[in-house]
Amino acid sequence: MDQKDKTITSYDKSREFGAMGQLLRELQEEEMEQNESSPAEIPEVKIVKNTTEIMAEINATLKEIAETQKSILEEIKRSK
Q1: Coil, strand or helix: which one is 80?
Q2: Could you report the per-residue pLDDT of 13-48, keeping only the tens digit for each?
Q3: What is the pTM assigned to this prediction?
Q4: Which domain, by its residues, includes 70?
């Protein structure tokens, strides 16, 4: 294969990849802009945030229940 042929072949491949590469870069940039401008709007983030809030509420409720049970047991012990 002649050196010119190699150059032309590699140029054609890079040109083809360049167009696809440019498209991929544009899509990635668009996605990054969307994520940077509104990270709270990403569904996964909302789900994680809601789950964390629910777990915190459950934890607080369980602590209240445990304290109530403890005080009830102490009251029972005193009355015996």
Answers
A1: coil
A2: 555 566 677 778 888 888 887 767 665 567 777 888
A3: 0.45
A4: 39-80
